[in-house]
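Lecture notes, unit on protein representations.

Consider one protein chain, 196 amino acids long.
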Amino acid sequence: MSDTPRRAGRFLRPALAAAAALVLLGAGLGLYVFQPWKAFTDTTVDEALPAPAAVMTTAPGPSATAAPVPGPAPAATSAPAGPVDLARGGFRSGEHTTTGTARLVRLADGSAVLRLEGLDTSEGPDVRVYLSALPADRSRRDDLGDKPLELGKLKGNHGNQNYAVPAGTDLTAFHSTVIWCQRFSVTFGAADLAAA
């Protein structure tokens, strides 16, 4: 009796185990890279526009020993100005249907935020928000131009959200905001930022 089938079985089992391990590894890597479940999920964010903290000051009450001092009335202090729109624009779709409005807003404390309002786009792996020096019709073609400014990961694919702009940023250098998938180098959507 020949033991050729036994020898073949000895070599076949490790080869099948190695092939199964490679298939599982490839499937795991594919799930990590493509994250296909995100095609069926949504994340909604509803942030209010940041408001300055209320400053509470208390004036000293009348004292029995202090007499009023004649002189000019104290200067009235003006309340800080509210948020001011610097630029705004509507989103254009890129690789995914994207709608909503982008606003660059100067807050009362002098800081700036990029506010996305009524955003509606797709979820995806490693999606980020950028300011780009290019106009939206160019920045959405897999190119963000010179020195794009990353403001962070997209917080949600639906709703209203704020992204702080670093202090000292020259806002006049940027002409659009872009929702960009870092992993696949594609634009989900972009909005021109026209002066308000």
